[in-house]
Structure formats: C-alpha cells, structure tokens
Amino acid sequence: MNINLTMIGQTIGFFIFIVFCVKYVWPPLVQAMQDRQKKIADGLAASDRANQDLELAQQRATQELREARDEAATIVEKANKRANQIVEEAKTEAREQGDRLLAQARDEIEQERQQARDALRAEVATLAIAGAEKILESSVDAKAHSEMLDKLSAEL
Amino acid sequence: MAGESPAEYIQHHLTNLTYGKLPAGFERNGTELQEATWTMAQSAEEARAMGFMAFHVDTLFMSALTGIIFLVLFRMVARNATSDQPGKLQNLVEMVVEFTQDLVKNTFHGRNPMIGPIALTVFVWVFLQNSLKLIPVDYIPALTSAIGIEYTKIVPTTDPNATFGMAIGVFLMVLYYSIKVKGVGGFTKELTFSPFNHWSLSWFNLILETVGLLTKPFSLALRLFGNMYAGEVIFILIALLPFWAQWALQVPWLIFHILVVTLQAFIFMVLTIVYLSMAHEEH
C-alpha cells in the first residue's frame, strides 16, 4: 500500500476519460434522448388533435344526417300533399265532366223527343186527313168510325 | 499457491505489480546495486524500497482497461444513437445516462453542461473498476503467474493510489470551478472571511476552510478505498477455506458485494456532484 506515481497516472487517466466523455459520448446520447422526447410529445399532441378532429367530424356528420332526414321528411310530406291535390283535382274534373256529359245527353234526348213529337204531330195531321178521306169515301159507320179512331189513337 | 502460509497468501494477494526505481545501495539477491535502477519489483520489500518513484502496473492497466471499455462501449452506442426505437444496448446506456442526468438535475444547482458527463464518467468508471472484484480472487493471479508475472491485484479501487488519483482529479476540478465561478478574489474571500466575517480572524478562517477543502478528496478517496479493500480482504480470507466449503460464505458475500460495488460507485458520483455544486455556489 505504497503511495506512488500510480496516483498521478490515475489522475491523468481520469481527466482523459472525462474529456473524451464530454466531447464524444455525452452530446450525441443526450441529443438522441431529447429528440425522442420531442418526438413522443409531438406524437401525443398529434393524436390529441386527431381525436378532437374526429369528434368534430362525428358531430358534423350527425348534424348533417339529421338535416337530411328532416329534409326528406319535408319532401315526402310535400309530395303527399301534392298527390292528394292531384287526386282531388282529378276527382273534381271527372265529376264536372260527368255532369257535363249527362246534361248533354239529357239535352239530346229532350231534343230527339221534341223532334219525334213534332214528326208525330205532322204524321197525325196526315193520318187525320187520310182518315177523313176514307170516311168520306165510305158510309159513316159510328162503329166503324170509332174503330178507326181507336186505331188512330193507338197509332199515336 | 500451495505451500504458502495463510499470511503469505494474503500478503501475496495484496501486493501490486510494481515497476519503479530501486535506490542505489539496495541489496538485491545478495548483491548491492551500484546505482538507482528502474526495474520490476520482485518482492514487497523491493516495492516498498522504491518509495514514490514507482508505478503499480496492474492498477494502471486495469483502470485504463475499464475506462476504455466504458468509453468504447458508450461511444459506439452514442455514434449509432437513434431517436427512434432504441436497441437493447442503447436502452441500457440511456438508462445510465438518464439516471446520472436526473441526479445532476436534482443535486447540482448551478448551470454547467460539463457536470453531466463528469458524473457519468465517474459513475461508470468506478463501477467497472469495482466490478472487477466480482471475479474470483485467484483466477487472474493464477493466469498471470502462469505467464511469469509474480504479482497481480486486479481491482484498481483496492489500491489507494487509484482512489486518491480520482479524488485528486475531483479536487482539482473543485479548485478550477471555484476560481472560474468566483474569481481568485472571490475564492480567497470565501476561504478567509467565513465562517467568521472579521479581518482579524481571517487566519483562523483560512485554516478552517483549508482543512474543510482538503477533507473532501480525502474522505472521497478513503471511503471508496476502505470499502473495496475490506471487501477484498474478506474475499481472500474466504478463499483460504477448503474448496468445498468456500461457497457457503462466498455466495452471500458476493451477492452483498453486487450492492456494495454499485453503491460505492453511486456515492462517489454523488459526492463529486455535490462538491462541484458547492464550488459553484456563492456564499
């Protein structure tokens, strides 16, 4: 256990090692560690941001979906109303047309009846003249006349 | 080491491989040396006779080796360091670096980017030097004696030269930063005007503060040396037991020393940081 030059040698070695460590070992290691810390922090921040974005997007999607549903409901309602209206209009029109056709038919019938009656009246006169002629030619027989008149009236 | 008495065995294990200058007039192998010669010591007496002019080759070699292992390993990782997913080795290295970084952040209140790497070097280097102790005490000496090297003491921190060497390094840094931060005047003032702030007591303050200052490297070196040396002696004593009984004591002592090795390295680092922090503080 002698104290000797070894001590000084050890001190010199100590300083050499320290200088080497200070220059070549410590800086790159600490740099790498700091870089990693920064990277991790950035990554966490990015994931936070992404989460927020996702939440916002979800909210927007929900809202848009609700709006779309509302709009669809409105459209369906409008369409229903319009359809009802169309049906209603068609019904009215049909009824009106029916009425009109009916009236027209009635008019025609009336007209034809009138014509028939007129024709008949003309016919009756002719018949009456023919009957009178016949009566004047043959003797007047009450019985025969009445029979003739009956025939005449039956002809009307 | 058959044929040795236990005292010789222990003595042998605690002797460093010494290269130094034998003084003139030293009697070696029956002949007296004519002049001072640089030579490898062949016995503990020779090593003692060399005095201050000697090197412990084994201590220097092992401490340099551990230091180089540390730097090469860490440099390799540092060069390939990625900020993406780190590999296993990088993870380990980063764990150590982060550990020292946190410690420096909590303990050191000044602003000096040098303290981190200093603390890292101290911690890992001392840890590796201490770790050599976990190699069974006879392995390396048996190998080296097989190639003709008589003495080998592989754990540098069981050599007071190594611990004092590092403590002196810390002490020099304390002086350097004290003067750098406070200036020569400020540092002198600190040494002479506290704790008693009166000019007539400045001589007393100077003695007090100098003792306080010198105590730091002493306690630093002796604490590490004492712990490591005592542990080593116990290991050697256990190695004297019959081989079939050694494990009963060796295993618990070894497990305990896994803790001691780390703890002493940690303490050495923490005290280094604290002393340097004190050097940065104005009183």
Estimate the strand proportion of chain A. under 5%
Q: Could you tell me the radius of gyration of chain A in angstroms?
A: 62 Å
**Rounded Rg of chain B:** 23 Å
Helical content of chain A, roughly? over 70%
| Domain module tally of chain B | 1
- The neighbouring-strand order within the major sheet of chain B is 4-1-5
Give the largest chain-chain interface (CB within 8 Å).
A-B, 33 and 54 residues
Structural class of chain B: mainly alpha
Global outline of chain A: rod-shaped
Number of helices of chain A: 2
Low-confidence stretches of chain A: none
Main beta sheet of chain A: strand number and arrangement? none
Quaternary status:
heterodimer
Mean pLDDT of chain B: 88
Low-confidence stretches of chain B: none
Largest beta-sheet characterization of chain B: 3 strands, antiparallel
Q: Helix and strand string of chain A, N-terminal first?
A: HH
Protein name (chain A): ATP synthase subunit b
Transmembrane segments (chain A): 6-26
GO molecular function (chain A): hydrolase activity; proton-transporting ATP synthase activity, rotational mechanism; proton-transporting ATPase activity, rotational mechanism
Membrane topology (chain A): Single-pass membrane protein
Keywords:
heterodimer, A: 156 residues, mainly alpha, 2 helices, B: 283 residues, three-stranded antiparallel beta sheet, two-stranded antiparallel sheet, 9 helices, ATP_synthase_B_chain (chain A), cell inner membrane (chain A)
Explained architecture:
Chain A: One of its GO terms (molecular function) is proton-transporting ATPase activity, rotational mechanism. Chain A: It is found in: Cell membrane; Endomembrane system. Chain A: It is a single-pass membrane protein. Chain A: It comes from Halovibrio salipaludis. In chain A, 12% of the residues are buried. Chain A has a domain at 9-100. By secondary structure, chain A is an all-alpha fold. Chain A has helices spanning 6-137, 142-155. Helices cover 66% and strands 6% of the residues of chain B. Chain B is globular and about 60 Å long. At the A-B interface, helix 1 of A face helix 2, strand 5, helix 3, helix 4 and helix 5 of B.
